[in-house]
Amino acid sequence: MLKQKIADLLEKSTAYNRYFLLAPPLLFIAAFFIIPIFWMIRISFYPGGSFEYEPGFTLQHYLRFFLDPYYLGTALYTLKITMLVTPFVIVFSYAVSYLIATSTGKKGAIYLMLIVTPLFTTEVVRALGFKIFLAKHGIINTILLATGLFDEPLQLIYNDFAIVVALIHSIIPYACLVLIGVLVGIDKSYLEAAKTMGAGRIKTFWHVTLPLSIPGLSGALVVSIIWCLSIYSIPEFLGSGAKYTMTMLIEEQILSVFNWPFADAVAAILVFLTVVGLAVSFKFSEKKEFK
Amino acid sequence: MTALQLEKIDKYFGKTKAVDGVSLEVQENEMFFLLGTSGCGKTTTLRMIAGLEQVDGGAIRIKGRDVTRLTPQKRQIALVFQNWALFPHKTIRDNIGFGLKMQKQPKTDIDAQVENMLQVVGLPGFEDRLPGQLSGGQQQRVALARALVLNPNLLLLDEPLSNLDLNTRLRMRSELVEVHRRLGLTTIFVTHDQTEALAMADRIALMEDGKLLEVGTPHEIYESPHTEFTARFIGEKNSLQGTVSAVSDTEQQVRFNEDSYLSVPVSSKHPVQEGDRVTVFINAEKIRFFKADADTGGDNYFQGTVENIMYLGTSNKYSVKLQTGETIVHDQQTTQDAPKYEKGDRLQVHLDPAHCICIKEKQ
Which of B67, B73, B94 best probes binding to A when mutated, by most A CB atoms within 10 angstroms? Predict the structure, then answer.
């Protein structure tokens, strides 16, 4: 009903009305997102360092980032985490989404609720949750010790393992929401047509379901990459503290070192990486979009 | 030989009985239609024949083989869906060749058969296109080719023409009949469109409320329907309600009021007794008009007044109020010599007894 009403409204609306409807969100995004980003990029070119910078133009902060192996290392570390996390996110969320999309009746709704529930807590709370979960005397270690397989607790926390696990857990719900939509949208008659032409379940999946879900897969890919690049609290709380992601470097430069131009340069590079990642994924999914 | 036999098949969706004890036999090479309104169970019946729905009772035999519990891929049938269900990500070649690929035929064989099939449906050279690049009519042909290439025991068509515009639909009708005539494939065609069924079918099965009402040739279904539902559903029939006032060996009288009645020949299909409430059906094009002052005499002539005229191109549709108080509709071809009547004209209406079908009302 409401959907129909909105559709009718858009149908009837003149170009003027459309802009009128679009104006509030556009203004909001411009004021609180686009302008600050350009502001940030401008400051990244200002000469200066800790506690002091002045208007001007220099590439020193960018050069510093790319020429110093320590700083460049944060970018590589961020990419490494991204590449470790993303395949798991894709596989796990595809499996879960497929289960939800093919469940009938109430089951699907219950699974979906279970998937979405973690999103009601914030990223920080989830990171702290993992801290408890993976701690030296946390649930996992208690169980492992009880089974007798290990004599002493495993080091599950303050390393890459903890970051990767927590990231996978955090991103799966978002990736699922993208994938479920696409999987549910696949017309059942395609699957039935494959069946009547002699394809079993596996062949139907391989030849029909999987190729038709590529737009969803690339969507999940985008979601995963963006989250991995931009997440801060999980590596901060669960990482070793010795290795920095780009987000941690930015935080340190802003809040501890007060080198704003340099922090802005790193942030600009991160934005650039994200945009490139998005563009590549969109290009990829565009080719595979059908109808 | 019987190509398809349904034996009292049932289907429940929850507590609703979607298909209720449907039995029928389809002969080899027959073009058989399942006709009915939406929700009558015709598509469910087709899907059960295909194996996409399990029957809740009864048996299905294809060419004498019991397939009731077999999966679709083991039934050697081909189904053309209402939306054609062409795989949007596969080329026309891969769409048509899909079933053959599942049979693990060599690629060169598949390509040759695909090419041949595209000739049959009149789309040579379309191998490398995607379904989205084709018009509705072309997609329809590809869907047909994809079904035919499997050389199935049964070709099942689920409203395959209802997504096409009128002109394409009419063209595809004759093309389908032509392909069917050439290949001689037993075909089950589901539709809600009675003109489609009348034009194409060898036999029609009419369904309503999950039940099979009657089976017959288009001529039988149109001219001498068994049931009141068929009479109302097929064609545009006038219905007049009355009471049987006299029955002789050859004729029965249906009285509408004190001074008007119809004489209808006795029909073994529809036995009635004196005093029965009946409905008399007569097709709109079977009615004849005479001038009000014409000396007609005899039975089944009624005085009437033209109430409305609707111009339909090939015919004029007259609404005439009879002296009995009922309004009847007459379709008169717009040929040159057809007499013209104006709104308000008085005339005589002849209801030819030979075309009157008198069916007893349900209690």
Answer: B73
